[in-house]
Amino acid sequence: MRDRLKNLTEEDYWVYGVTESDFDHAITIVREMIDARTQQYKEKEARVRAESPDVADDILDDVAHYCSGQVILATGL
Prior knowledge:
Strand content: under 5%
Structural class: mainly alpha
Distance between the termini: 41 Å
Shape: rod-shaped
Number of helices: 3
Helix content: over 70%
């Protein structure tokens, strides 16, 4: 029995769950989401600094705090 188990490949049985290629794809998607959110933040930062330069830092501190929470949830860091 042990010899048969040693020679099993993925084609010999059905695996439920994430495969290695699925995992790599998921990492790629999460990185793309983080990059897109970073770009959104930079655009918002430029707009806030132009519209409200006196309070821009206070506004952006709140936005940065909540955005970093999204990144932590998405990446598990």
